[in-house]
Amino acid sequence: MAARKAIDSYIYETPLILSVSLSKRTGHHKILLKCENLQRTGSYHYRGFIHSVVRAKARDLSVTNFITYSVANGGRALACAAEDFQSAARVVAPGPTHPLVASGIRYHGGVLYPCGPTPHARDARLAELAQTFQANPRGRAVVVDPYHDPDLLAGFGTVGIELMLQTDCEVDCVVAPLGGGALINSLAVALRGMKPNVAVFGAISDFVNESDMSLRYVEMKTEGKEAEKPEAAPSSSNPSILERKVTKWNAKHMKKLVNGVLQVTEEDVRYAFRYVYERCKLVIDLKAATAVAAVLANPKELRRYQCVAVVLSGGNVDLKCIPDLMSSAL
User: Of 82, 114, 143, which closes a domain?
Assistant: First the structure.
């Protein structure tokens, strides 16, 4: 609740929409869509990064540079949050960055710093920037870890708090994209704080190199700091299909917090994207479509829940790609 109060004047309270068509299709009493695609910068990431910026400024007003790494929504969110405090975002991009992402970061005054695609190259670039801007007499620097920063995670958790307040805790199951694990864990902590028996499921797809990830999160392969494998590069046509393996820290907490992980196919995701676009009149990215696809698949794990909320985590999609994504017939 403290995080929600701290960022209340900066974020949008995003709509929670009852989808009659999804409810009929799946047989649940209610399917609710939490529209974080309508959040500032087009994703839930802004909640986390604005909370990190607010807390950093509360501790030290001389902080004027915020550093993170991202090739997708996180960099744009930090740039916007830093701009709100007349500060600058420094975004390390470990791999190719889609022009849509890069333009969003620059629009809010952020600066991109490309580096090699390995964790070692990324960490070296982060350390270099931190040292450079810490020595800047005009303002100190703070590094915001996009997967483990506690203030960031508390900000992500406000999605769950807001959702429960909007439904008077009626929701008994929440489905969200798995991603790197930060959102799903933050949601689970916040939701269980308000309703201990609520179920939380993550959704993953085989859209981008996820065939090596187990359906059971307790066996999911994770990325360690010692790994030197290149991170997945964004599609040349669409930044929203970038996926990242769950980090070790988040996987450890998922074992305690998440009821299970639902896997869907590329075709399921494309179908879900078109379904939401045509039936719900919303534009979402493919990570959000993964969560919708998991519900549309009507897995046995979800059938006993009456009121299911789906977190539409983002809506940043290259408009040129929509015709291709709409290729699946309803």
Answer: 143
pLDDT at 320 over 50: yes
Q: Which of 239, 222, 262, 213 is nearest to 319 (CA)?
A: 239
| Residues pairing with 314 in the sheet | 43
Question: What is the arithmetic mean of pLDDT over 53-77?
Answer: 93
* Residues 191-231: tens digit of each pLDDT: 999 999 999 999 998 764 332 333 233 333 334 433 333 33
Q: What is the CATH number of the domain that holds 77?
A: 3.40.50.1100
Exposure class string for 78-115: b at 16+ Cβ within 10 A, else e: bbbbbbbbebbbbbbbbbbbbebbbebbeebebebebb
Number of domains comprising the chain: 2
Tokens in use for 80?
């916007």
Q: Which domain holds residue 194?
A: 1-43+150-219+236-326
Cβ-proximal residues to 249 (8 Å cutoff; 6+ apart), any chain: 147, 148, 181
Reply yes or no on whether the pLDDT at 184 is more than 90. yes
Per DSSP, the three-state class of 72 is: coil
Task: Please tell me the pTM assigned to this model.
Answer: 0.86
> What does the pLDDT look like over 67-82, one tens digit per residue?
999 988 999 999 999 9
